[in-house]
Structures are given as structure tokens and as C-alpha cells.
Amino acid sequence: MRAGDTVLIRGTGGVALFGLQFAKLHGAKVLVSCSSEKIDRVLALGADHAMDRRQADWLEALYALTDDRGADHILETVGGTFLGQSVQAAAVGGRIYQIGALDGFDISSPVMPLMMKDVTIHGIGTGHRRAFEDMVRAVERTNMTPVIDSRFMIAELPDALDRFDTGPFGKIVIDNTTFPHHEHA
Fold first, then answer.
1. pTM for the structure as a whole
2. What is the CA 21 to chain-centroid distance, rounded?
């Protein structure tokens, strides 16, 4: 990714919001596709524009914001049939980073825009150690802070899973501490 590239972030979970923060760090123009009640929050985090993913015309809005070009990079955190929407939203030569499977493990896309636009889809699981260390250094140097939606104790795991099902804004933290913290003098 280069400064000036357009990045589309699909969603507002922890991975998506970290993607937004890293894209802004690199000087990208960031668009977010999310539910309408989260638009103000992604704009406050630095997104340049946000579109209501539930609106039928969100793709037209994306093209209007990119001078009919589409997004150079797309962080696809949902998968399933959403991948097809990402292919349609991609610029010619665009790259899609499939990093989530919230819509299931089968993905689908119309083949013509995929071929005509020369879109590359990267499947991402976990990276290698050096990439992780580079990321941690970048976070430390820039004082980047992960967005925390909510925190639960391990005994509240069912509640945490229920919260996950409602579409959190950022990460859900599970504290597995089973003993009280003691301060040292």
C-alpha cells in the first residue's frame, strides 16, 4: 500500500478497525462499509468516508467517492457472498485481503469483474513472526491503541460470545485472570 491509495474496510470488528488505523498511518484514503449506527464512530477514528452497508446504493457511493475507479485495497473481514461485493468494489488491478469468514467458509463472486479487473485475492490466516514483530514496533512507535468494544471475565464467556454475535465495534477482551492482582510496594 502506498500513500494516496484508496482502501475499503468491510466492517467494524477489531481486525477491521486495526486495518483502518494502519491504512491511515500509511497515508491512504480510507472508506468503511458498515452499519449506519457505526458511521459516526468510524469517522471519528479517522475514516475519510463511511457507507451504510445495508443500503442498496453503497457500491455507487463508493464509486462516486473514487471518481468511478473503485478501491485499490479491500480488507474483507466477512467473506461468503460479501466477497462478490468486494470484487465489484475493487479498482482495476485491485487487491482483496480475505481475512475473515463471518458469513461462512464458502465464498462466491461473479467471475467477469474478477477477470476483467485483474483483481488479486489474498487469503490471510496468520502471518509470520517477523511481520508480527514489525507490526508491534509500528504500534509502539505511533502509540496506536486498539479499539476495545467490551471486556469480560472468563466466567462471563457466554456473555462475551453473545456480544460477539451482535457485531462489536472493535475487540472483545476476555480476562482469564483467576486470582486477584496484588500491587507491589
1. 0.82
2. 10
As beta bridge partners, residue 32 has: 9, 50
Strands 171-175 and 71-76: unpaired
Query: Three cell numbers at 138?
Result: 509500528
- Written in H, E and C, the secondary structure of the chain is CCCCCEEEEECCEHHHHHHHHHHHHCCCEEEEEECHHHHHHHHHCCCCEEEECCCCCHHHHHHHHCCCCCEEEEEECCCCCHHHHHHHHEEEEEEEEECCCCCCCCCCCCHHHHHHCCCEEEECCCCCHHHHHHHHHHHHHHCCCCCEEEEEEHHHHHHHHHHHHCCCCEEEEEECCCCCCCCCC
pLDDT, tens only, 72-113: 999 998 877 888 899 999 999 999 999 877 666 777 777 777
Which three three-digit cell numbers place residue 116? 476483467
Question: Between the CA of residue 10 and those of 14, 110, 175, what are the distances in Å?
Answer: 11, 18, 27
Cα separation, 148 vs 173, whole angstroms: 7
